[in-house]
Amino acid sequence: MLDREVQTDDESEVKRTEAPTTSFRRSLESCVNLLKTKKSGISELTDAEILLLVHSKRISAHKLEEELGDLVRAVKIRRLLVSSSLANTEALCDLPYENYDYSKVSGMCCENVIGYLPVPVGVAGPLLLDNKSYHVPLATTEGCLVASVNRGCRAITMSGGARSHVYADGMTRGPVVTMPSAVGACEVMEWITGDGYQRVAEAFNRTSRFARLQSITPKIAGRNLYIRFKATTGDAMGMNMLCKGTESALHAIQEQFPEMEIIALSGNYCMDKKPSALNWIDGRGKSVVCEAVITADVLRNILKTTVADLPDLNMRKNLIGSAMAGSIGGFNAHASNMVSAIFLATGQDIAQNVVSSNCITLMEATGDDLQDLLVSVTMPSIEVGTVGGGTSLPPQAASLQMLGVEGSSLLRAGTNAETLARVICGTVLAGELSLLSALAAGHLVQSHLKHNRSKVDISARSNPTSPTHTRAGSLQTTASLIPQCGNSR
Fold first, then answer.
1. Spatial distance between the Cα atoms of 489 and 483, rounded to a whole number of angstroms
2. pTM for this structure?
3. Residue in 219, 317, 443, 448 annotated catalytic
């Protein structure tokens, strides 16, 4: 996800131009001359004529938005270009592209756009977390997930709510540099963590109004030096800030050690979008813990289980079972389900689900008679932001508004992102509680049969057995796709 320090939306209107409807088609030479001689010549060309220019390399397909100045028409023409090369030329008909604000996408979220993908969004809650109720948006195609999380939210709320705390905060970037010798690499390591730390920190911090360096953790491998920069980044997830700050810091180090060679801004010591013990132990993004005490009545009447069953199941499944599998950070039942669903709904970088789903779930009996359940989830690496990237898309911004965390906090930079991380952790708690209760009661299969079975006749949607395949250069075929797909998709 990209982060933006200027936390305002671009309110400029998207220019729209009507494509000429004449059936007459100019020659390639005429189209090229029109482009060269008239500033607005491209607006006079038909879709088929623009496709002709694309096929002849006079216009780059990835620059259609820039050339046309009409974002929707650019997407439409690119769809025609792609469809003409597919075995089933109607394959994109059910992928919508109209009635969407592409000004929030272009140059920020996606390239070579051919449409947008609607995903069902359910709501779970209210979830009572830190004395405040949240209705949590979950974007998913997995039946039973929202219903299960909703039951967990109900159990938590009826038991008096959950408590959470962000106990650490810091995004990381880990470049790799080399020195002529291993001894030289050690000298760099000692300088950046000693006498040179302040100089490096100043170089890092001056690149942003929000990013503030917290620590530098170097590791040696021969003459290779891996440097893990960790910094707070306000309400942004922060990778762009870390990249800018890290680059500036490396140049400051090079001033002291001119022989140092920067191999890569990311040396996989960050560690971004990949499982690692480092993020599980040291944390990345927001480190959050959430806990709740579920009363015996709620366990019995809502979750249909008892405190006698859940801690033992959790130990044997989430702790021993995950250890037997050699898991790193996977000591939970399905934290990734809730993380992914909230990430999709709120415009986070979905690939960061890999690191953000690190979680350990713990359960134990509590209360005077040991009939209540103390349950907690600890998540050391939730990577989220409430500004930048996909958070600026209207549907995703609406989900953030539901949670009261859209944009940058007016109280303190970082408050909204921290709240989102706490809500994610609380929602994971609800999902863990509900699924483990279903497993303990033996209800998992029945609930999935009820909520997660497709009732659609798949055979009725099968593709034609012998679709007409046309080469990408066939303008007549691409133009004919418009009436087949319709204009309101």
1. 11
2. 0.87
3. 448
User: Using one digit for the tens of pLDDT, what is the confidence trace for 292-325?
Assistant: 999 999 999 999 999 999 999 999 999 999 999 9
Q: Please give the share of the chain, as a percent, with pLDDT higher than 70.
A: 85
What amino acid occupies position 102? Answer: Y
Q: Which of 349, 372, 383, 418 is catalytic?
A: 349
pLDDT in tens, 169-181: 999 999 999 999 9
Q: Check: CB of residue 40 under 8 Å from CB of residue 20.
A: no
Distances (CA, A) of 435 to 149, 193, 317, 378, 385: 8, 46, 12, 17, 28
349 part of the active site: yes
Q: Is 449 helix (H, G, I), strand (E, B) or coil?
A: helix
The Cα 305–Cα 311 span in angstroms is 11
Question: In which band, very low, low, confident or very high, does the pLDDT at 449 lie, cut at 50, 70 and 90?
Answer: low
Question: Is residue 418 exposed (0-12), middle (13-18) or buried (19+ Cβ within 10 Å)?
Answer: buried
- Identify the active-site residue in 273, 304, 317, 451: 273
Q: Is 448 a catalytic residue?
A: yes
* Active-site residue, selected from the candidate residues 44, 67, 90, 142: 142
